[in-house]
Design a protein that fits this description.
The chain is an all-alpha fold and 115 residues long. Helices cover 52% and strands 0% of the residues.
């Protein structure tokens, strides 16, 4: 998380892509607390190793900017997919809470009490 503006130098004829995520939005992509990177500009090579290098090569070979963004988006979706999958235990707990809430509301209505 950046708390102030940053300036990143670039060589002539070079290009750069970045991803901005909302608070909590980076969790699916990293196996550690993202707060460890607060106020840092971090290259992904040491974190994602070879797979980010392969993506970089694909991006460099793609001439169209829109296709580059499509490629990056597809990569990030694949990267996060396992961590974005719903947890069945959480889903079951939420369903139980919903059922309890409905039954409690019905019970209070039949007794004439306020929720």
């Amino acid at each position: 998380m950046q708390r102030r503006y940053i300036v990143i130098g670039a060589e002539p004829s070079s290009s750069m892509m970045g991803v901005h995520v909302r608070t909590g939005g980076a969790a699916p992509f990293f196996g550690f607390p993202i707060s460890e990177l607060s106020d840092e500009v971090v290259e992904l090579d040491p974190i994602w190793k070879r797979e980010i290098l392969a993506l970089r090569e694909q991006l460099m070979e793609t001439p169209n900017v829109e296709l580059k963004f499509d490629l990056l988006e597809a990569y990030l979706l694949r990267k996060a997919q396992s961590r974005l999958a719903p947890d069945h235990a959480v889903a079951a707990a939420l369903a139980s809470l919903d059922t309890w809430r409905i039954e409690t509301a019905r019970s209070r209505l039949s007794l004439g009490t306020q929720p």
